[in-house]
Design a protein that fits this description.
With 219 residues, this protein is α/β, with parallel strands linked by helices. It is 32% helix and 27% strand. It has a 6-stranded mixed beta sheet with strand order 6-7-8-3-9-10, with helices on both faces. It has a 4-stranded antiparallel beta sheet with strand order 2-1-4-5, covered by helices on one side. Helix 4 packs across helix 5. The protein is globular. The structure holds adenosine-5'-diphosphate (2 copies). One adenosine-5'-diphosphate binds next to helix 4 and helix 6. Pfam families: ABC_tran.
């Protein structure tokens, strides 16, 4: 079944001088693993942000998990419930512990603190980081931080995970580790996984590859 669709989506910046997306159409089915590739500036992040409702199109329709995003009046609730974000630079909060960082997305949900703790420990266990739960984020290596970011992305059991260069800041060993976790998650939980990558080998692990150029999908 279809989980994401875009119809003739256009997005410009700088008063229309930069066309980040130019008439994009996509359809992604539930449980798909899609990689997005293309040169720098081709619109990959804009496309991902559009799916995650972090940005709105100038024109066209975006439908995610049965909801028309332009008509949705509570986008932050939608994001917290349906979407897990993983960014290249983790976006973790350095003054908080590992566990507190994982719990951030649950604050906007009505989840009591006992349940929050249970969920964050389960996920940290899954990521091989249970014994680091109370450490400050700054004590962790890059690979460990990226696994914390994945745990945080999963904490509300999202149906869609959006990852922007999730292995981009890691060495190849840690990159493979992070990727294997994502792949396993996709295989075991039927999560729809959409990932931007510069790495051809990584892109090939997906079931579908979207190639972008100049704000358009070229294949
Ligand atoms: P990619 O992820 O493929 O590198 P982006 O989606 O980040 O591409 O960017 C597409 C184009 O839109 C680029 O020319 C970029 O400079 C421009 N762009 C993206 N975000 C903004 C913004 N917030 N303000 C101005 N220009 C932007
Ligand atoms: P690592 O690469 O550090 O071993 P994994 O995520 O593969 O990280 O595993 C971390 C821990 O979580 C391991 O102890 C593993 O047995 C456990 N684990 C892995 N997958 C699952 C799963 N689907 N359900 C429960 N526990 C799991």
């Amino acid at each position: 079944d279809e989980i994401i669709s875009m119809n003739d989506v256009t997005k410009s910046y700088e008063k229309g001088n930069i066309k980040a997306l130019n008439g994009v159409n996509i359809r992604i089915d539930e449980g798909d693993f899609v990689s997005i590739v293309g040169p720098s500036g081709s619109g990959k992040s804009t496309l991902l942000n559009m799916i995650g409702a972090l940005d709105k199109p100038d024109r066209g329709h975006v439908k995610v998990a049965g909801q028309n995003l332009l008509e949705n009046e509570n986008l932050s609730k939608f994001r917290a419930e349906k979407i897990g974000f993983i960014f290249q630079l983790h976006n973790l909060i350095p003054t908080l512990s590992v566990r507190e960082n994982v719990e951030i997305p649950m604050y906007s949900q009505k989840i009591d603190s006992k349940e929050m703790k249970k969920r964050s420990f389960e996920l940290l266990d899954y990521m091989g980081l249970k014994n680091r739960a109370n450490d400050n984020i700054t004590k962790l290596s890059g690979g460990e931080r990226q696994r914390v970011a994945i745990a945080r992305a999963l904490v509300n059991k999202p149906s869609i995970i959006l990852a922007d260069e999730p292995t981009g800041s890691l060495d190849s060993e840690n990159g493979i580790k992070v990727l294997n976790i994502l792949k396993k998650l996709h295989d075991d939980e039927n999560v729809t996984l959409i990932m931007i990558t510069h790495d051809q080998q990584i892109a090939k692990m997906a079931n579908h590859i979207i190639k972008m150029k100049d704000g358009k999908i070229i294949s």
